[in-house]
Amino acid sequence: MLHAQSFPSTAAPPRRASPRAGFALPIVVAALGASLLVTAWLLHRAGLHVALWSRSNLPFALAGVCLFGLRSGMVLRRWRHADGLRDGAGYYAVFTLIALTGAVASYPLAALTQGYADATLHRADVALGFDWLGWYRTVAAHRPLQWLGVAAYESIYLTPALLLGWFAAHGQRIAAHRFLASFWLAAVLTLALFTQMPAIGPLSYLWRGAVDYMPVSETWQSNLIPALRARTVHVIDLGALRGLVSAPSFHAAAGTLYLRTIWRTPPLRRLGWLVAAMLLATPVEGTHYLTDMLIGAVVALVAAQIVDACLPEVRT
């Protein structure tokens, strides 16, 4: 069990100790608002719209109502955990909106792309000595590796939930705001680079014949991107979003940000094993080239450095 008191030098400061503690969050919210406007424009340009009233959106609506209730103070004000609940609700709401906006934006961006970068990405993998097919065959031949890989790959949302929950519980607003700002910027940079290197992924590009093992991400790029380009897809269902971004790997970008944040927060360093497992599962379960992942890691580091440079108030 993790205990903050085991690390006296990183003990949570008293709440409201710094007048600048909440300085970064309005900037992140404003940036997110701008992203929503740009996404709406991209959807219009690509002839797409979001099915807001789909039944599959109900979980998002219920979560939104709960988070709004907590954030607006609909909890016992005198309860000692009230501040943490309000902060956590805000963090989770912003993180979820960033993730959803990025996933939705990938659809119109994919529709506006041309060609594929798989040949270049594969050549880069060969130059690095990475055998994707060998990695895939190993996983396909061992069911335990498949179970572990799926669980680790899906932890992309578990790790930030734990991070943001810990920040909220310990009053670490500065660290939470910095993390959210870096996550948003990494998503923006990933999508921008995606337009320059769309890909169908190594499973669709390299494998021939019947698929021995279908990873979590399946082969949606090879089917959905051509349909989006042909304008035969017009509706996006939030409850059935598919991963379209092969390069850069956003799992790798997110994992790099998680590790960076965990390293700066000693009580949470044990979570590093969970992130490492996610990254190991990403080539197969995410059908990513190693080159995708390296580019994603660089994107995350650049985003974090920009946030530190532009928002010095959020440095710890």
Automatic annotation (TrEMBL):
Domain Inositolphosphotransferase Aur1/Ipt1, first and last residues per copy: 120-304
Signal peptide: none
One Pfam assignment: PAP2_3
Superkingdom in the source lineage: Bacteria
Protein's UniProt name: Phosphatase PAP2 family protein
Segments passing through the bilayer: 21-44, 50-70, 91-110, 145-167, 179-200
Alphabetical UniProt keywords: Membrane, Transmembrane, Transmembrane helix
Lineage: Bacteria, Pseudomonadati, Pseudomonadota, Alphaproteobacteria, Sphingomonadales
